[in-house]
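Suppose a colleague, Dr. K., hands you the sequence of a protein chain of 295 amino acids and asks what its three-dimensional shape might be. Before reaching for any lab equipment, you can write down a predicted structure in token form. Begin with the sequence itself:
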Amino acid sequence: MKSRKLLPLAFVAALAFCVITSADEKVLYEKKSAYNTIIVTEDDHGLRTLWFEPDGARQSVVKPGDVDHIELPYARTMPAGLAFVERPRRVLIVGLGGGTIPGFLHKHYPQTIIDVVDIDPDVVQVAKEFFGFREDSTLHAYAKDGRRFIEECRAPYDIIFLDAFGSDNIPYRLATREFLQAVRRALTPNGVAVGNVWSRSSNSLYDAMVRTYQDVFDELYIIDAQGAGNKILIALPRRQRIQQEELVRRARRISQEEHFRFDMGELVVHGFEYASEKDPSARVLLDRNEPQKTE
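The predicted structure, expressed as tokens, is then:
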């Protein structure tokens, strides 16, 4: 996910530009699925965009055939979680979209088992048909409920990326303490959970989401995604204090060794926060308090 409808004023002009220019893009696919209105567009540069509603947030932007092209700022920032796990053997990604992050990680870590789960089978099909997503012996996609998949996990993961969004925000049931407790159980002791959330200015539950991560995990780091309204939460199931300078060094080294086109170290410099203090006014999100849907 990149940009959303309820953005701070600094982002309104940029978002309006995205919506206006999208009108000039060619629509390749549109279908009402059980969960979303799936739309695929393509611009004059060959970039394909996945939407879940006509004027909503861009879920993925992919240059087919070039997995190293990472268009959206949040997608370049999430791999910073690799700085906490030198050589991940098993990775889980909740939320497929157009397959940007799975494809990127698969190219640079071809021996790593990467499981991707998305609740919408039509999204999985669209990722394969329009965005070049391909499964093989180490990259697998599952059209399943992400929460249930994690709750039933038997072989733990070194990294779990949480990137599941509806048309406008994270499903509540993927933000609660009960869910994050299941995520923690699904991690190896030296693993890391990396969550993508909207920032406070466009997400009324932001402080509660942060407080819930703090309630479940032993350490929490927050990185601002430059040029977007996203915050990347890096949560550890152990005590491991790391200074910003050290995280920058690790992220930069990985970028160089793996020949990324971007410097993750430079991204970590921006908006780094060690979230050690807990906001006493922020509530912990619980399953039992899920808002009732209105027709």
